[in-house]
Amino acid sequence: MKIQVNGDWREVRAAELAGALVDLGYGEALVSTAVNGEFVPAAVRSATALRDGDRIEVLAPMQGG
Amino acid sequence: MLRLYDTPVTSRLLLGSARYPSPAVLAASVRAAGCEVVTVALRRESAGERAGQGFWSLIRELGVRVLPNTAGCHSVKEAVTTAHMAREVFGTSWIKLEVIGEDDTLQPDVFGLVEAARILCAQGFQVFPYTTEDLVVGARLLEAGCRVLMPWGAPIGSGRGLNNLLGLRTLRAHFPHVPLIVDAGLGLPSHAAQALELGFDAVLVNTAVAQATDPVAMARAFALGVEAGLAAHAAGPIEARDAASPSTPVIGTAFRG
Predict the structure, then answer these.
(1) Nearest Cα to Cα of residue A45 among A62, A54, A36, A32
(2) Is residue B19 a contact partner of residue B210, using CB atoms and an 8 Å limit?
C-alpha cells in the first residue's frame, strides 16, 4: 500500500506500523511514531493497522534549543 | 539549591544543543559550561541517514539531563502530540513547551500555551513553558499545573538581552517561590549575570554560545556570568539612586571650616 512517511509517499508491504517501519529501513532505530497526527506508542505499533493514504511521522532525537 | 520539579540542579546555566559548528564542539561546550541540563528536540528521521541516532549517543555520553522541547509547534494539538513522542524517546516527563504564535518574533501563542500546559500537566508531564514575561499568563500557567516558568528575555536568537526589565522584575516579585528561568534572547554573559542578579533562578542559552566565534570559550564565559550574577544576588545589591552619595567619609575632610 502507499503511505506518506515524513511527507514522502512510500510503498510498504506490511499492513501494520511495526512491519512498515522494518520495510522502510528503520529496524531497531530509536524513533517515535504518529499516524495521522496521533501518537502511536512503540508498544502498540504491531497492533496498529495501516490504510492506504495514511500519514506516518517517524521522529528521532535532534539538536534543539 | 534550585529544584526543578523536585530534581536538584546545581548549575544555573542550561544549554541548548542546536546550531553548533560540530557535535564535538557541542560536547566540549557543555563540558566547559558545567551545565547539567541540555535541551533537545525531535525531528523527522531518515531511515538512510539515521542522524538522530548518532546525536542521541553523543548526548547520552555527556551524562546530562535532557529537556526535550516542542519547538516548531504552532498548535496545541501538535505540541501535545510532540510532547508524548518526546516522552517516549527521551524517557523523561520533562517537556519544554513551545507553542509558537508568530513566525517573525517566534513569540509564544500564550493562549495555546496555557491550553497545552493544562492538558500535559493533567497527563503527568512536568512542563517548562516557554512564555512571555506577562504576569497574568504566568499565573494561568501556574494554575494549569506548571511549577516552573520560562519567560523570554528577548526573541529567540536575537541576542538582545533582557528586553523588558520592569516586566521581568514584576514577574519575579509576584512569584518568589517559583523557579523562573530566562529562556531566549540572551547574547552576552552580562545578560545572564543580570538575570541572576534580578533573582531569576537560571538561564537557558543556545545561539549566543553555539554561534560565537569560539563556542567553548563562550560557554565558559556564560558559566562565569551566571556564577557572578547568582553570587551578587545572594550578596544583596544596593538600590540604584539618582543622586550621588560619597563613598569616602565626609567627616574630617581637610580644609573645611
Answers:
(1) A32
(2) yes
| Chain B residues with beta carbon closer than 8 angstroms to that of A45 | none
B79-100 pLDDT, tens digit each: 999 999 999 999 999 999 999 9
Q: What's B206's DSSP letter?
A: S
Q: What is the pLDDT of residue B117?
A: 98
Cβ distance of A32 and B88 shorter than 8 Å: yes
Task: Give this prediction's pTM.
Answer: 0.94
Q: Which residues of B touch A31 (CB under 8 A)?
A: 45, 52, 89
Say whether pLDDT at B257 is over 80: no
Asked about B96 being catalytic, the answer comes back as yes
DSSP B19: S
**If DSSP codes are grouped into helix, strand and coil, which group holds residue B216?**
helix
Do the beta carbons of residue B182 and residue B171 sit within 8 Å? Answer: no
Q: Which of A41, A57, A58 faces B88 most closely, judged by CB atoms?
A: A41
Query: With contact defined as beta carbons under 8 Å apart, do B97 and B120 qualify?
Result: yes
ipTM of the complex: 0.94
B55 to A62: CB separation less than 8 angstroms, yes or no:
yes
